Write a sequence for this structure.
């Protein structure tokens, strides 16, 4: 299991770096994006191995990326979204989006007379899963603004700035 | 007739308010700077809350109150003088495209903080804002290479072997090249996405057609992922969470339409290759 999680972290590091390059993230934030993407995806993989639900695991991974982003934003003086977004892209539900599209084609192929009910159910399930996972990504990226009452991450320098009480 | 009621909004204690740093600039000049900054941020893929924050950061150092309205195609700012409410100025700027350039987002944020902390003067802000538009991009071939690697890694992550990921690598590099070259030549955005999706699916479909890898479907599924409009999709949800409803819906529709184009391209590609058992 440990070997699988390590391989997962290794591969998702490159995914995050690749997408960060596509989004023109500055060079100093590239490594951070890669590390956060790797760790976030690793957390998701570990939770899946331990038998947790896919959506819950993704949420935990992205929330970790969002919270770690606050720390790194101060380290490298960069807005967090610049590297948390490519990091979260590693968990983009590509396979489920693909299956949704294939399902639509299958429903079309079955025609009116054929039995499309199984395809319909499958497609709807994949669509719902895709949109839930996307929503998890967005929550993770904006967790700093959602959970804490500060407008800008720059105002959160110490734990006491979070004003949790 | 009572003369003091003619201008009821005019504050009496003008002298009491301390004069901020950039008090000598005209209201129309300042509105142009705000519009330039906000349109640049919008064209670089920043979400509305970030644009709003950057603009208010600049405005806090000026003698004006700034209200802004952001829509998908244009940004409009309304300025009013803090010391003289009669002076009001509204200006609008169109947004030309919706690209992604996080380097600009980073530098704009740093620039506005510098101005806010009095590290740079107003003239320096103006010149650096002009230079911001030409922020350096990464070398094109490096981006293509790393996107190929990224899609190949995604293919491994969903369970393909190295033959699958090699097919994914080739398909995504060629597809991204098609997309970037067509964008440079000024084709319609949706046509670009459709063409890139067709090319990618055709190349990755060869894997399925000849049954090269262990899980051939994975290469078709992951090779098109570089096209997924991740930034508009996530920005849409962030905007909805922050309460910018109209632009959140607009961004969501934009991203949904791009997804539809990718789906149509994949459908055409799959039909041409003739995959029956996908």
């Amino acid at each position: 299991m440990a070997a699988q999680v390590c391989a997962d972290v290794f591969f998702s590091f490159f995914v995050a770096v690749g997408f960060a390059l596509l989004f023109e993230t500055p060079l100093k934030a590239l490594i951070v994006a890669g590390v956060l993407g790797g760790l976030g995806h690793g957390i998701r993989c570990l939770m899946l191995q331990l038998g947790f639900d896919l959506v819950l695991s993704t949420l935990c991974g992205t929330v970790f990326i969002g919270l770690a982003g606050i720390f790194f934003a101060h380290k490298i003086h960069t807005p967090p979204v610049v590297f948390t977004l490519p990091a979260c892209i590693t968990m983009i539900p590509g396979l489920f989006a693909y299956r949704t599209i294939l399902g639509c084609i299958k429903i079309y192929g079955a025609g009116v007379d054929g039995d499309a009910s199984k395809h319909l159910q499958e497609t709807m399930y994949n669509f719902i899963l895709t949109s839930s996972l996307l929503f998890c990504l967005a929550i993770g990226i904006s967790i700093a603004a959602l959970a804490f009452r500060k407008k800008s991450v720059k105002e959160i320098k110490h734990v006491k700035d979070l004003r949790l009480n | 007739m009572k003369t003091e009621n003619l201008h009821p909004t005019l504050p009496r204690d003008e002298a009491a308010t301390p004069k901020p740093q950039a008090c000598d600039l005209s209201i129309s000049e300042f509105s142009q700077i705000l519009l330039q900054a906000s349109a640049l941020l919008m064209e670089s893929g920043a979400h509305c809350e970030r644009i709003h924050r950057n603009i208010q950061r600049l405005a806090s150092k000026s003698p004006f109150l700034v209200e802004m309205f952001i829509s998908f195609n244009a940004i409009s700012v309304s300025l009013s003088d803090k010391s003289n409410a009669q002076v009001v100025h509204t200006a609008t700027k169109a947004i030309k495209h919706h690209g992604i350039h996080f380097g600009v987002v980073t530098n704009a944020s740093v620039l506005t903080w510098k101005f806010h902390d009095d590290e740079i003067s107003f003239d320096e802000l103006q010149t650096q804002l002009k230079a911001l538009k030409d922020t350096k991009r990464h070398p094109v071939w490096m981006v293509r290479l790393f996107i190929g690697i990224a899609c190949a890694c995604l293919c491994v992550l969903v369970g393909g072997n190295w033959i699958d990921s090699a097919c994914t690598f080739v398909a995504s590099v060629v597809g991204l090249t098609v997309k970037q070259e067509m964008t440079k030549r000024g084709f319609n955005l949706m046509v670009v996405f459709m063409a890139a999706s067709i090319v990618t699916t055709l190349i990755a479909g060869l894997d399925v057609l000849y049954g090269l890898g262990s899980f051939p479907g994975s290469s078709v599924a992951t090779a098109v992922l570089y096209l997924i409009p991740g930034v508009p999709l996530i920005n849409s949800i962030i905007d909805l969470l922050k309460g910018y409803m109209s632009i959140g819906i607009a961004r969501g529709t934009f991203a949904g339409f791009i997804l539809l184009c990718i789906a149509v391209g994949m459908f055409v590609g799959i039909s041409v290759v003739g995959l029956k058992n996908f």
The mean pLDDT of chain A is 85. Residues 2-92+139-162 of chain A form one domain.
